[in-house]
Amino acid sequence: MIETDDPELACPIAPAVDLVFSRWTTPILWALHTYGRQRFVQLERRLSSITPKVLTQRLRQLERDGLVTRTYHPEVPPRVEYEITPLGQSLAPLFAGLADWADENLPKVHEARAVFDAR
Amino acid sequence: MIETDDPELACPIAPAVDLVFSRWTTPILWALHTYGRQRFVQLERRLSSITPKVLTQRLRQLERDGLVTRTYHPEVPPRVEYEITPLGQSLAPLFAGLADWADENLPKVHEARAVFDAR
DNA sequence: CTGTATCCGATACGATACTG
DNA sequence: CAGTATCGTATCGGATACAG
């Protein structure tokens, strides 16, 4: 039995989880991965329930983390395009694996909930 | 180009993300997966920064979702043991994949942050 | 169009104390 | 030991309005 004094960080995937699965990041990355390079307003419409403030916050974070690039075109009106990076693309197999897991196991989760709630 | 009116849910992994990567779930599942069946107080000590209230909340949620079982032994003092279910175990390959991704790519993320912050 | 600024409410978390 | 109850707080996200 391994013992540790820093148990929370003893979960080796915690940093990656914080990075990849913080709120709005998967829908944004999914949109960029699926529909390709697109403008701010396109993302805003696709993620219909997001506000511009939050979308900006998340895009900045993703840009800082190297998962997304931001390209500014100094025109009138201004045009900004966001695109997923190779580093962001490298998450695709993970997302696919998660989608497969969900296809196979989400029904079991709902079944478990029904059983649990029936008490 | 596919178009949809429900863009947030157009991210097919969103439900699974909510289920698996909500706060504290990965450290708890990791502890149960790594160290096996254990008591409430053992989990509490391993996740040193968690409070009993939150630990209870998360364990109930995991139990309801079928990822964890709770076994109550009516003794004095009472003894309760938690164990990961086969459904919970089915997440192991996903977690391993995430760990591999982190090993290879977290350094790149930190590098990207350093570059970004240097402006 | 692409954001920023402000305010606000909900939620979630932690601290603490207490019970069976 | 295994929780529950209560309280205070902090953070985050949404709504709205506005600017370059």
UniProtKB/TrEMBL annotation, chains A, B:
Keyword hit for Transcription regulation: yes
Keyword Transcription among record annotations: yes
Residue ranges annotated for the HTH hxlR-type domain, each copy included: 11-110
Domain of life of the source: Bacteria
Gene3D superfamilies registered for this protein in UniProt: Winged helix-like DNA-binding domain superfamily/Winged helix DNA-binding domain
Assigned keywords, A-Z: DNA-binding, Transcription, Transcription regulation
InterPro entries: HTH_HxlR, WH-like_DNA-bd_sf, WH_DNA-bd_sf
UniProt protein name: Helix-turn-helix domain-containing protein
